[in-house]
Amino acid sequence: MFGLSTKDTTLLLFVAALTLLAPFLLNPFPENSAMAQFNAGYPDLMQRFVIFGTFAIGFNILFGLTGYLSFGHAAFLGVGSYGAIWMMKLLTLNVIPAIIMGVIFAGLFALLVGYISLRRSGIYFSILTLAFAQMSYALAYSVLTPITGGETGLQLKATDTPLLSNLAPGEIGRANLFGVDMRSSYELVIGDWLFTFNAGYYIAAVCMLIGFYISIRIFRSPFGMMLRAVKSNQQRMNYTGLNSKPYTLAAFVISGMYAGLAGGLMVAMDTQVGPERMFWTASGEVVLMAILGGVGTLIGPVLGAGMIKYMENILSKINDAILHQWFAFMPDGIENLLVAIFHPFIGKGWHLTLGMLFMLIVIFLPGGLVEGGQRIGRIFRRRDRKADSVESDAAKQRKPAE
Amino acid sequence: MGILEIKNVGKRFGGLQALSDVNLSVAENTVHAIIGPNGAGKSTLLNCLVGKLIPDTGSVTFQGQSLLGRKPHEINQLGVSRVFQTPEIFADLTVLENVMIPCFAHRDGAFQMNALRGVRSETDIRQKAEQILEDVSMLEKENMQASSLSRGDKRRLEMAMCLVQDPKLLLLDEPTAGMARADTNNTIDLLKEIKDKRDITMAIIEHDMHVVFSLAERITVLAQGTPLVEETPENIKGHPKVREAYLGEAQV
Amino acid sequence: MEAIILQILNGLDKGSAYALIALGLTLIFGTLGVVNFAHGALFMIGAFCAVTLQRILSLSYEVVDDTRTDFLGNPLKVDVPYVNGWFGPEMGQTIIEWSVPLAILFAIPVMMFVGYAMERGLIKHFYKRPHADQILVTFGLAIVLQEVIKAFYGANPIPTPAPPAFTGSFDFGALIGFDPNQIIYPYWRLIYFTFAAFVITAVFAFLQFTTFGMVVRAGMADRETVGLLGIDIDKRFTMMFAIAAVVAGLAGVMYTPINSPNYHMGMDFLVLSFVVVVVGGMGSLPGAVLAGFVLGILESFASMAEVIDIIPGINQIIIYLVAIIILLTRPRGLMGRRGVMED
């Protein structure tokens, strides 16, 4: 289906089902139960899942296929966001032109940065992209204030009168898709459970699914094969009559456009943007997502993005009181000890958990969660086979006796 | 007029004159060996042919077209393929993919933005790739990862990658270096077969005299960056100058 | 003229910090071939050594001061640092005030241990893995280290003043024959620069004049050959890592009076230091030092009001801009890449 193999179609449908049913899947606990704090099915967080999923999918096209580690991808996200919000301020509050503008702006900027950065490879490339991103951040923060709003960033204001949207004077515009407000939600109550279906989330989810589909196509195309060839042996590639430069540049621009899409979607959801979106820690975050999930795999980056955003939201909400609640069944001394042990890893310390998890992954599981899953799968299969072979051995032994 | 004409080529690295006044003509459909002691400039010469180095002086023409200033991929697109001393393959890819990539390069040129076309739908390319794998008897290994191949298989795979592009000129840089005798003989047989079956010109840089004398129709002896003699194998063996410069120490 | 000298002086302290961090980065890259994204964290740990020592020295016990009463009329309880008890109040107070310079002595063993543990525990296993993996794992380590520091010391900057003798400024211009009050320069910055120059000289002398240094330099040039000579190069490289950690740590200790340390100072400096290393030439020690100072001074010049009037925002991007130009026009950096110090 869609020009994909059965396996890839299954994967696509699986991801589609996951994202479309996310409001159910992410809210497995009843609203007033103690476990409700682990629910992730609220619009704000779900939107971030799919937006960062898109960002990570794009990053993976560059890093996963070509092996070029960009440490400045947040710059494209930021540029996409600025492009999108200007579209909303000036032209229309409909999100589609804004998102398209975000993609185009980011793509053009990626073309410029990529053209220069790709003249170097390895660590030099990483540092060049980092330098470009930091430069963009510094510029957006200071000199370009008329365009970027400086430190405070840009928001939709009462003074903005987009050309094609008929706003009452003084009314603050709201992002919409042909009249459907991004923030409108439908709430479904079943028993103790509350499920929220948010318009913005579904638009972002559809964008991510399209992005995911395109990424599968790229992975399975001759172009994708060439990108893997770049990673594997650039020398052989050149002596095989292929010019690796345009291939890597194309991959760079495509992944920049994905970042722009993510940036545009962010603006479509919350109609604001600030320069911190381009800071290098944001670039580092997408690297973490891709690695955590599994670089070079199709679904890895989506999983990684989901996991990091989930941790960020859920872990950072847990506090000592909740820990005390959990360990209340223990004797007091042990309870306090356990709380003290877990304390640095939760709340504001969730970055520590993230850093440790990330290190463990790089050290022991370079293929990320996907490789982890495969390994576990293999163990089970081996156990089955062992059981089979034990049986067949037993059968062999029985034979002579008969 | 040969298929490859090298005229007055010189190349200098700092204080070292690696090549000076090299004149060489490789005739079409022959196997031409370039031999010489270590440091004679063989590899430098080869690198000047494939675009890795640019000679300081002189000219290199292939089928009447100058190769100077062209990038390696452009030279390959003209029909020159290169086999490396240690096999250069796409180690992370499967054997079949390794051969498909040169097929794409041959058909689509140096760059093609075919990001949404599926590899699966490229049946022509696949057939061609499988055909060449069968020719080098590696078809049963097509789904193996190339890095897991034995050294001999890697060499064969690299040859297949070059041959699938139907090159007019195949450059081989010590194709049997570091090989056991049996592998060397296999490689010689493979090269002989290629030579018999195809219209192909080969230029071989080689240390191993056994390989040179079993394959070459012309031999150029390079010493200290200049060609000493160009002769047929029979005449080379008895040539006093060559004996002095090279064969004396190799004791053939 | 005065303005130019003033800008050069202003650039020296940041330049010194860049140079010291870049020197360590280069030592590690040159010897171990590892790209250490956690080097900024070492700088930060050094700074927090100063904080820690300050806290240790200020550890206090409670005594009842009979001469004073609180507002209820009870005798006042005051905290007296232990050092006051041991050395008398005046001497004790002086020791606390001098905690930053004293922290140098404290930081050296601590940083040695940290560096040693890092190399043996983690980096060692990444020699044979691709640069991307090295970047990633040290990046993870940097996050962990800075979060640990944050967990212990909080997120706010902690003031660590210089000894009172060195606070304040002096009229540098008058000293070298300019009009008075034209070039005012804080004492501590001068001390920082002198200290950095001393450390850099010490590292170079160490590499130049000791057998150990000779082996390391040889190893930087050609690791395998030195290994073949039967020299246990690995052990020396471990030492080299520890030394690089000490250099970064000392840079951090002495930097605390200039900027109060916080948990993310390491990352802030790291990004710039990497740029410095690249500009100087990966693997070139003199290049790293030179580029550190040059970029520090350039940054300071770019911050002049006259310059900003012409090119707004140039102070924010000058270092990156220089790095991009250098990388594109002269990829091996200012001072080559061919390895060893002589080049």
Automatic annotation (TrEMBL), chain A:
Primary residence: membrane
GO cellular component: plasma membrane
CDD domains: TM_PBP1_LivM_like
Protein's membrane topology: Multi-pass membrane protein
Subcellular location field: Cell membrane
GO molecular function: branched-chain amino acid transmembrane transporter activity
Transmembrane segments: 12-29, 49-71, 91-116, 123-144, 199-219, 246-266, 286-305, 326-346, 352-373
Keyword vocabulary terms for this entry: Cell membrane, Membrane, Transmembrane, Transmembrane helix
InterPro entries recorded: ABC_transp_permease (IPR001851), LivM-like (IPR043428)
Signal peptide location: none
PANTHER family, per database record: ABC TRANSPORTER ATP-BINDING PROTEIN (PTHR30482:SF17), HIGH-AFFINITY BRANCHED-CHAIN AMINO ACID TRANSPORT SYSTEM PERMEASE (PTHR30482)
Protein name: Branched-chain amino acid ABC transporter permease
Source species of the chain: Litoreibacter roseus
From TrEMBL, chain B:
Domain ABC transporter: 4-249
InterPro entries: AAA+_ATPase (IPR003593), ABC_AA/LPS_Transport (IPR051120), ABC_transporter-like_ATP-bd (IPR003439), P-loop_NTPase (IPR027417)
Entry keywords, A to Z: ATP-binding, Nucleotide-binding, Transport
Alphabetized GO MF terms: ATP binding; ATP hydrolysis activity
Keyword Transport: yes
A single cellular component GO annotation: plasma membrane
Protein name: ABC transporter ATP-binding protein
Species in which this protein is naturally found: Litoreibacter roseus
Lineage: Bacteria, Pseudomonadati, Pseudomonadota, Alphaproteobacteria, Rhodobacterales
UniProtKB/TrEMBL annotation, chain C:
Chain segments annotated as transmembrane: 16-35, 42-61, 95-114, 190-216, 236-257, 269-298, 310-328
Domain of life (superkingdom): Bacteria
Keyword check for Transmembrane helix: yes
GO BP: amino acid transport
Keyword Ligase: no
Keywords, comma-separated and alphabetical: Amino-acid transport, Cell membrane, Membrane, Transmembrane, Transmembrane helix, Transport
Gene Ontology MF terms: transmembrane transporter activity
Annotated membrane topology: Multi-pass membrane protein
InterPro entries: ABC_transp_permease, BCAA_transport_permease
Subcellular location per the Swiss-Prot or TrEMBL entry: Cell membrane
Pfam family, one: BPD_transp_2
A cellular component term, taken from the record's GO annotations: plasma membrane
Family the entry assigns: Belongs to the binding-protein-dependent transport system permease family. LivHM subfamily.
Stated name of the protein: Branched-chain amino acid ABC transporter permease
Organism of this sequence: Litoreibacter roseus
